[in-house]
UniProtKB/TrEMBL annotation:
Residues annotated as domain MrpA C-terminal/MbhD: 14-77
Positions of the Na+/H+ antiporter MnhB subunit-related protein domain: 194-316
Matching InterPro entries: CPA3_antiporter_subunitB, MnhB, MrpA_C/MbhD, MrpA_C/MbhE, Nuo/plastoQ_OxRdtase_6_NuoJ
Gene Ontology CC terms, in alphabetical order: plasma membrane
Organism from which the protein derives: Sinimarinibacterium flocculans
Protein name: Multisubunit sodium/proton antiporter MrpB subunit
Domain MrpA C-terminal/MbhE: 112-173
Length: 330
């Protein structure tokens, strides 16, 4: 057994232990923290499997943004989960056991782990993505080629889903209007001086790194989804340290709402432009007929920018909506 295999086993053991702890613990704050640990461990497993782009997304969204939103949601609910009657727990346990048994049974048809002649290795589309895409798309990162070009229409649907989800949350929780949120008294703010100084040093680098991930996703791990979450994390960190009102004054909701729609319009506008140029929807070759690779690169750059804008605005709006509600204690 190799050292890498031991690391995989250890990470999976952490996942199992964390999942069991999440199911057993009733304190919701601890559950939120453990969920972040679960996502971070999953990101480590993805890195071990050479799925760096997926690991990037899991770390940024699962361990980072989702944890912050969970904590914001705790302000609107109880801090401890209610006990579920056994009469209701038993059917849920039976459903979970049946689902797990079906998954284990279906896994028997999967190829052995790591074999060279598995369908994913021998299928013709594998060579198309890994070899031909370098000539057709001209982008070194195969993941970006697949997500933004080969299946760009599906990615457009994902962006629309993110925008729709943000609008739905705003409709349910309101526009993030502050309702009795407890302000931190001045003496407490003075004791946070070190935290405020460190945050001032970190936030510019977080935003700069978000821009790097945005415009370097075609050459390495990254893209609009990851960059949007990272950029939003910088704004949210500012709000957590300096207060929600300070963040709203710098990045107000009246700017975020049109920005969320702008990203979708930019993405869809590229597809409309290719249609008007005589091609198919999101056929980036039409953007530069004399140099299809340049057209692909330009199209991917524009649609990824649209993704980044929508994700950034949606994440910040979700945080404002949760953090701007009244605090309930129980």
């Amino acid at each position: 057994m190799t050292g890498w295999m031991l690391i995989d086993i250890a990470l999976f053991a952490i996942l199992v232990a964390t999942g069991i702890a999440i199911a057993q613990i009733r304190q919701l704050f601890a559950v939120a923290m453990l969920s972040g640990i679960f996502s971070l461990t999953s990101a480590c497993i993805f890195v071990m499997q050479d799925a760096v782009d997926v690991a990037f997304t899991e770390a940024a969204v699962g361990a980072g943004m989702t944890t912050v939103l969970f904590l914001g949601a705790l302000a609107l609910t109880r801090t401890r989960e209610k006990e579920t009657p056994r009469t209701r727990s038993l059917p849920a346990l039976l459903v979970a056991a049946a689902t797990g048994a079906a998954l284990v049974y279906a896994s028997q048809d999967l190829p052995a782990f790591g074999i060279a002649d598995s369908p994913v290795q021998t299928h013709p589309v594998t060579e198309r993505y890994l070899v031909t895409s370098a000539e057709e798309i001209g982008v070194p990162n195969v993941v970006t080629s697949v997500l933004a070009s080969y299946r760009g229409y599906d990615t457009f649907g994902e962006v629309v889903v993110i925008f729709t989800a943000a609008i739905a949350v705003l409709m349910l929780l309101g526009h993030g209007a502050t309702r009795g949120v407890e302000e931190v008294p001045p003496p407490m703010r003075d004791r946070q001086r070190v935290l405020r100084v460190v945050a001032k040093l970190l936030i510019p680098y977080i935003l700069l790194f978000g821009l790097y991930v945005q415009f370097h996703g075609d050459y390495g791990p990254g893209g609009g989804f990851q960059a949007g979450v990272i950029f939003a994390a910088g704004v949210i960190l500012y709000a957590l340290v300096f207060g929600l009102d300070a963040a709203r004054s710098g990045v107000p909701m009246r700017v975020l709402r049109p920005l969320a729609a702008t990203g979708v319009v930019v993405y869809g506008g590229v597809g409309v432009a290719t249609l008007m140029l005589g091609g198919s929807f999101l056929d980036y070759n039409r953007l530069a007929p004399d140099d299809p690779a340049a057209g692909q690169h330009l199209g991917i750059l524009l649609v990824e920018l649209g993704v980044g804008i929508t994700v950034t605005a949606a994440m910040i709006m979700l945080f404002y909506s949760f953090a701007g509600r009244g605090v309930r204690r129980s």
